[in-house]
Design goal:
Blueprint (H helix, E strand, L loop, with lengths): L13 E2 L7 E4 L6 H12 L5 E4 L5 H12 L3 E4 L7 E4 L7 E4 L4 H11 L5 E5 L10 H9 L3 E6 L3 E7 L7 E5 L6 H10 L6 E5 L7 H13 L4 E2 L5 E4 L8 E3 L4 H14 L1 E6 L12 H7 L3 E5 L2 E6 L7 E3 L7 H9 L5 E4 L11 H11 L3 E4 L4 E4 L6 E3 L5 H11 L5 E3 L12 H9 L1
Parallel strand pairs: 2-15, 3-14, 6-7, 10-11, 18-19, 22-23
Antiparallel strand pairs: 1-23, 3-5, 4-5, 7-9, 8-9, 11-13, 12-13, 15-17, 16-17, 19-21, 20-21
Bound molecules: shikimate-3-phosphate and phosphoenolpyruvate (PEP).
Shikimate-3-phosphate binds next to helix 3 and helix 5.
Length: 434
């Protein structure tokens, strides 16, 4: 459990640096959280030992590796390249306990894996994790015959999955309007269910479809047959998951704050390793940043974003890429015209209620930001010095850093919360600024 960081004195907060002049930086961004944690799960369920190259090492991915290790999987640094992970599947074991931290991918991807273990698996996490929605996953597992002997009222952490070594599988309805991870978490393990799985989404909206496409793609790459030809219905056939040697793409969403800096400050920021094609929603950044005033070029695998220091507001439906919202909101607060962000009601169940957190913090700095039913309206105003509170949310911290580029005297509380997906954020940020 972590305690509230809101009580920290301001002088313990990180002074977000301003830029001395236009940027000219190349930023190497570590591996994707979403891909690393999917590959770890699939490697753990595979038919032999596998390897992850360029895997992200951060709080979320270490928690995933530790959780899978607690279930009996051997996950070790490779002898020749210690930054690679070697994964050797074993019989999945309970009893076990899993610390989810604040990681949506751990709490939503592992219950179906735990159902395949041969004993009970108890899940818990940070205080904030206990507020993140889980019920659709637990209800779906129960409908598939899995025992859930313990869960907090309403279907939250902590809960226990009564693993019995096998899951029947079959057909299930899931309302995934609260998170795409409810779908991904069931599909990832479904090839190991006796009857596979047919999953039908029943809600009115579905966020983060690229992340579901990512799940389908990594399953297919591992030899699993997936039918996604009908909108909002997925069929995973039972069968082996092939062991693989994979390279993880850089985390394009984590590239966001660095690329955004080029707009705010002017100059150019380059990110190498940008994939020619990808399911990561961060790929949408280039087009979004162009609408906000950037020039972008993809030269080989290097994405370059150039700006002039002038940022334009925009009207943007972000339902496919909600994890970009804090970065775009920070840019919007520094823009020359208002911004409306839509389609992101589900951000209320992210690391914190991100709509509330962004509106509150931008307003506290003198800006104008209001919540709507499914997003934010941000009207730029001159911002003043202050401390951005981060609510244990890595993307609130990186959003604060973006604001600090333009606002003297801005501090970011608990910047170490960036370790959730980017442990060296501060070093990388100073490195970019030169
Ligand atoms: O599957 C994944 O790896 C993710 C899915 C998305 O979740 P939501 O659909 O809950 O937004 C995204 O925001 C999160 O950062 C990562
Ligand atoms: C929503 C996010 O994380 P999680 O995987 O914990 O849901 C995020 O990284 O923006």
């Amino acid at each position: 459990m972590t305690s509230s960081a809101a009580a920290l004195p301001d002088d313990a907060a990180w002074p977000a640096p301003a830029a001395a002049g236009p940027l000219d930086a190349t930023v190497e961004v570590p591996g994707s959280k979403s891909l690393t944690n999917r590959y770890l799960v699939l490697a753990s369920l595979a038919d032999g030992p596998g390897r992850l190259r360029g895997a992200l090492r951060s709080r979320d991915t270490v928690l995933m590796a530790e959780a899978l290790a607690a279930l009996g999987v051997a996950i070790e640094p490779a002898d020749d390249v210690p930054s690679d992970w070697r994964v050797t599947p074993g019989t999945l074991r309970g009893p076990a306990t899993i610390d989810c931290g604040l990681a949506g991918t751990v709490m939503r991807f592992l219950p179906a894996v735990a159902a395949l273990a041969d004993g009970p698996v108890r899940f818990d996490g940070d205080e904030g994790a206990r507020a993140r929605p889980m019920a659709p996953v637990l209800t779906a597992l129960a409908a598939l015959g899995v025992g859930i002997p313990e869960q907090a009222p309403g279907g939250y952490l902590p809960f226990t999955v009564a693993g019995r070594g096998a899951v029947r599988g079959g057909q299930v309805d899931v309302d995934a309007s609260g998170s795409s991870q409810f779908v991904s978490g069931l599909l990832l393990a479904a090839a190991r269910f006796e009857q596979g799985l047919t999953l039908r989404h029943t809600g009115a909206t579905l966020p983060s479809l690229p992340h579901i496409d990512m799940t389908v793609q990594v399953l297919r790459e591992a030899g699993v047959e997936v039918d996604d030809s009908r909108p909002t219905i997925w069929r995973v056939e039972p069968g082996p998951i092939r062991a693989r040697d994979v390279r993880v793409e850089p985390d394009l969403s984590n590239a966001g704050p660095f690329l955004a800096a080029a707009l705010v400050v002017g100059g150019t920021v380059r990110v190498p390793g940008w994939p020619a094609s990808t399911t990561q929603p961060g790929a949408l950044l280039a087009g979004i940043l162009e609408r906000m005033g950037a020039t972008t070029t993809l030269d080989g695998d290097v994405l370059a974003v150039s700006g002039t220091g002038v940022v334009h507001g925009l009207d943007l439906d972000l339902h496919e890429a909600g994890e970009l919202a804090p970065t775009i909101a920070a840019l919007a607060a520094l823009a020359d015209s208002p911004t409306r962000l839509r389609g992101i009601a589900h951000l209320r169940g992210h690391e914190t209620d991100r709509l509330a957190a962004l509106a509150t913090e931008i307003t506290r700095l003198g800006g104008q930001a209001e919540q709507t039913s499914d997003g934010l309206v941000i009207t730029p105003r001159p911002l003043h010095a202050g401390t951005v509170r981060t609510y244990h949310d890595h993307r609130m911290a990186t959003a604060g850093a973006i604001l600090g580029l333009r606002v003297p005297g801005l501090r970011v509380e608990d910047v170490a919360t960036t370790a959730k997906t980017l442990p060296d954020f501060v070093g990388m940020w100073h490195g970019m600024l030169g």
